[in-house]
Amino acid sequence: GENVEQHPSTLSVQEGDSAVIKCTYSDSASNYFPWYKQELGKGPQLIIDIRSNVGEKKDQRIAVTLNKTAKHFSLHITETQPEDSAVYFCAASPSSNTGKLIFGQGTTLQVKP
Amino acid sequence: DTEVTQTPKHLVMGMTNKKSLKCEQHMGHRAMYWYKQKAKKPPELMFVYSYEKLSINESVPSRFSPECPNSSLLNLHLHALQPEDSALYLCASSLRQGVYNEQFFGPGTRLTVL
């Protein structure tokens, strides 16, 4: 079955710097890759997603890139702010169309003011 | 209304108790999910309902019993739980079951089993 690895597990940056989180997946048939942000005491919230037929997608300060050949995808956050501090999870959706999401282990991002 | 609500927020129960978790959404979504999340770990899928029918059971022990009485409501009935079942239980919903359907998560119920 699908397996998703996420790095790094923790990331600390200064406010205004960029942050990059990387994920690799094992099932070449996976075709949907969402990123979730989970703040303390809350459920995960979708922040951006990408489909397998797209190489890059941007939404203001957030971007995701996908390399299907290498089976990896990355989250890029520019001009980080303290409110970006949270746990970020990448996920992959296998091609079975069940809607199942296989999550990475998570990255705790700390943005220092 | 664009949110998933879960009650209670916190629950403490003994191993012989029976309790239920409740999840509600009014977004017209026809797929609903239960996840279990241990501390510092990602959510793990437990059950998926599609159009009020159980679609996926990820080999969850029978002490967890899901129920979907209508398209807006999802329950998780708990009985004879073990201390290792202590976790955050998250409910989610999406417009339909299937790839590309964004899953909206509730805030979770923090469960402690004594």
Walk me through the structure.
The complex is a heterodimer of chains A (113) and B (114). Chain A is an all-beta fold and 113 residues long. Chain A is built from no helices and eleven strands. Chain A has strands at 4-7, 10-14, 19-25, 32-38, 45-51, 56-59, 62-67, 72-77, 86-92, 102-103, 107-112. In chain A, strands 2, 4, 5, 9, 10 and 11 form a six-stranded mixed sheet that branches. In chain A, a hairpin with a 6-residue loop joins strand 4 and strand 5 (45-51). Chain A is globular, with a radius of gyration of 14 Å. Chain A starts with a strand and ends with a strand. Chain B is mainly beta. Helix content of chain B is 0%, strand content 56%. Chain B has no helices and eleven strands. Chain B has strands spanning 4-7, 10-13, 18-25, 31-37, 44-50, 53-57, 64-70, 73-79, 87-94, 104-105, 109-113. In chain B, strands 2, 4, 5, 6, 9, 10 and 11 form a seven-stranded mixed sheet that branches. In chain B, strands 1-3-8-7 form a four-stranded antiparallel sheet, with no helix packed on it. Chain B is globular. The model of chain B has no long low-confidence stretch (mean pLDDT 95). At the A-B interface, strand 4 and strand 5 of A face strand 9 and strand 10 of B.
